[in-house]
């Protein structure tokens, strides 16, 4: 099967590949506090800041606007958001509009006016010339993202006010909602800001730079946001390398639910940057995989890593599946073939985990690297019957191990055991399972993953029967299971080893190039 090695290399870093501005929202109770943050935003690499006047505890329009404008170190966008549009101001409407008019008179770079009051605002400034200020007319929908027709009509209504820049912010109920915003953005004839709020809308804030958005927002600190789902300025610049995104940038990402814990975006974006590959790798919080793949079917969306809970569904969604992935019954890597756009599914999970476990066992026996696997003849207990469980069971079986599947739902364990020719066990019975010593244990469930780090799938007293314990969870690196296994005298293998191994395989499927393993290791060591 061909790999999509038709990926153009990105030009040297430093130069800017898109005109999308990065705006840092500034919220603060006092002008002084805000001015400190403006300087921080400038130092951090922002292009402009949004001054949220509605966050000030006390506000004297003439004095305060003058202070901001006289001291500005970056272009200023003034927003005075009322409660009825999701802001904090609930005073007199005329005073609010007076303040924004005054900001124009004093030479603000931008002001933001809500569509609902835009006509009357424009009426009040008719005949006056403000050479400097660009007016953004905005509409916010905190419920949903409208249909493509409704979005198109909304753009037309905003344009009809006389807006210099159109801004539409909607809410993502599903990641596919964002595709409609991208469609409007790509075809817009006017400067257009299109953002989709919420975790499921995160890609709108990054890919705005690919699809021609006028600006995107990045916060100074994580957690301190002016709208849900905003990334940090630092992540926009250094995780996603926003300045390097161009119309022809290829999009990759990790599909999961949850997905925020994944280290794949850190790893792949850093590798892409180091080798000069023109791609960006995103977090993709996906509820319905088939719908996601149908919606993002353009050739720009070239490759996806797949994690819990979508690995088995992914198998059904691909046009072709690698024979190994088919035997396992799970796909963790999907590649769009450039020649015909078909989706090809692979499984790179088992190689990483099995190799790491073999290396752990060999380490115990002075690296006697024979052709026979150190797993041959061993009793190999897999906890979990999902995608990763299937991969490990398949891999261990292929190396000659005797496999036992333990799962909360015994029926799922039985099905997998039957499929690979092994035995099944209810997870509750694992604590008292001891047919022999020197067994191998592999946890493939999310038990023990952040934030529930005090959980473990097996009682400590049972761990003395195992010579090696592996945990696929890698956040934290040393889970409670691994800590207790080590205290019980077992060799431990961390999920980071499996993560690295599967990442090499995905990289090779994505690019058609051999994985730069040293570079991968160096990047992960920093985290």
Strand and helix layout:
Elements: E1 21-26, H1 31-44, E2 48-52, H2 61-70, E3 76-79, H3 93-105, E4 110-114, H4 115-125, E5 134-140, H5 148-160, E6 165-171, H6 177-187, E7 192-197, H7 202-211, E8 215-217, H8 233-239, E9 250-256, H9 264-275, E10 279-285, H10 289-295, E11 301-306, H11 311-317, E12 320-321, H12 323-328, E13 333-336, E14 343-346, H13 349-364, E15 379-383, H14 387-398, E16 402-407, H15 410-420, E17 423-426, E18 439-443, E19 466-471, H16 480-487, E20 491-493, H17 495-511, H18 517-525
Parallel strand pairs: 1-2, 1-8, 2-3, 3-4, 4-5, 5-6, 6-7, 9-10, 9-11, 12-14, 15-16, 15-18, 16-17, 18-19, 19-20
Antiparallel strand pairs: 11-13, 13-14
Protein name: Bifunctional 3-dehydroquinate dehydratase/shikimate dehydrogenase, chloroplastic isoform A
Domain SDH C-terminal: 495-524
Domain Shikimate dehydrogenase substrate binding N-terminal: 254-334
Description:
The protein contains 18 helices and 20 strands. With 527 residues, it is an alpha/beta fold. The protein has helices at residues 31-44, 61-70, 93-105, 115-125, 148-160, 177-187, 202-211, 233-239, 264-275, 289-295, 311-317, 323-328, 349-364, 387-398, 410-420, 480-487, 495-511, 517-525, and strands at 21-26, 48-52, 76-79, 110-114, 134-140, 165-171, 192-197, 215-217, 250-256, 279-285, 301-306, 320-321, 333-336, 343-346, 379-383, 402-407, 423-426, 439-443, 466-471, 491-493. Helix 15 links the parallel strand 16 (402-407) and strand 17. It has three domains: 19-245, Aldolase class I (TIM Barrel, Alpha-Beta Barrel); 265-345 and 515-523, Leucine Dehydrogenase, chain A, domain 1 (Rossmann fold), CATH 3.40.50; 349-362 and 373-492, NAD(P)-binding Rossmann-like Domain (Rossmann fold, 3-Layer(aba) Sandwich). The chain is elongated. The protein has an eight-stranded parallel beta sheet with strand order 7-6-5-4-3-2-1-8. It comes from Glycine soja (Wild soybean). Residues 374-446 form the Quinate/shikimate 5-dehydrogenase/glutamyl-tRNA reductase domain.
